[in-house]
Every structure is written in C-alpha cells, then in structure tokens.
Amino acid sequence: MINVTALIQLKAFARQDGFLLFLLWIASFAVIVSNPASSWGSLLAMATPFYVCYLLVRFRNYALDGAISFRRGLAFSLYTFFYASLLFAVAQYVYFRYLDNGAMMSMLIASVKTLEPFYRAQGISINELQNSLTMIGQLTPIETAFVFMMQNILIGVVLSFPIAWIGKRTIIRKNLHHGEQFNQNMNNNDINNNNMKNNDVDNDRNNL
Question: What is the DSSP letter of 191?
Fold first, then answer.
C-alpha cells in the first residue's frame, strides 16, 4: 500500500534537492560553454552521483530519523533527477533559443576535429560523426533541450540504483540501537537499585 503522506514528503524534498542539482548542472554547463578547454565543467558534471548521494543521506537523516529503505531511496533519487532534468531543459531551451547563436555546434565540431586521430584509431567513422553533428545542428532549440532532458533522465535512472543502495539504512539497525540503549538503561537501573538496597541494609545495621 502506498503511504500518501510519505510520498508527498518525499516529492517535496526531491523538488528542493532537484533544484540544487539543477544549480550544479547549470554551473557545469556555464563553464563548458564559456571555457571549453577547462576541465572544471566536466568535473562538476561527474560530481553528480556523489552530490545526489549526499542529498539522499541528508534527507534520510533529517526527515526519516536516519532510516530509509532501498525503495524509498530509489524513489527519492529518481524524483530528484526528474525535477532537475525538467529545470535544466528549460534553462537549455532559453540558452539555445536566445544565447547560443551556433556556439555549441562550433564547439562540438572543434572537439571532433581535435579528437579525430583518436576516433580513427578506435575505428570510428569520421563521416558518421559529422553526419550526426549535422543532424544535431538541424534540431530546433526545443528539440535539442528535449534530447538533453531525456538523456539526463536516462542517466538519472541508471545512477539512482547504486545511489539508493549506498544510502539505504534499514529500520532494523535503528531498532537494535534503541534496544542496546534500553538494555544499558535497564542495567544502570538494576545497579542503582542494588546500591539503594545495600545502603538500606547498612542503615538498618547501624540502627541496630
């Protein structure tokens, strides 16, 4: 049975964290567009799974008292990637519609020319790559943004499984922890009771 309240809570946190992931992607995209030779844009993009894992752990510890199942962790990761992909698609549409002016295509063509010896060594056809670039150049801004959005969602689906597995913490561990604390408290109470009994016995002896 679906817990509606838990789902609403999960989606609310996923929207907030999806916005944070969107900011990370925007920073990466801005660096790549403004300075293609810099490696910082790629590093920011590769930090995505680690950042989402951090967001999952934060959600687990803040909203769920440190316990989350694999299924809920998977749902949180999927929703986070989904909301971030939607926001990023809107931002990319604005960029390709009003700001790009062919800069992205020029950067892709330059990258292919730079890596042409590597592609030839790997047996990759340069003509096929150029034809692919031509097809990409013919896409409208909204089509380009949609292609990137679907790519980001697909990558998010793949990454969500290991992220959820790493971030999960079952309620059993939590109960064991509470059980250990309960046993420790009981032991302390028994010791205190024994001490009180010994004091009473000593007091009775002294009175006699």
Answer: H
pLDDT at 86: 96
What CA–CA distance (Å, rounded) separates 161 from 74? Answer: 6
Amino acid at the residue 36: P
Question: Pseudo-torsion of CA 174, 177, 182, 183, nearest 10°?
Answer: 140
CB 22 within 8 A of CB 64: no
Residues 134/159, Cβ–Cβ less than 8 Å:
no
pLDDT at position 59 is 93
Cβ neighbors of 107 (< 8 A, separation 6 or more) are 33, 36
Q: Using one digit for the tens of pLDDT, what is the confidence trace for 84-117?
A: 999 999 999 999 888 877 777 777 777 767 767 7
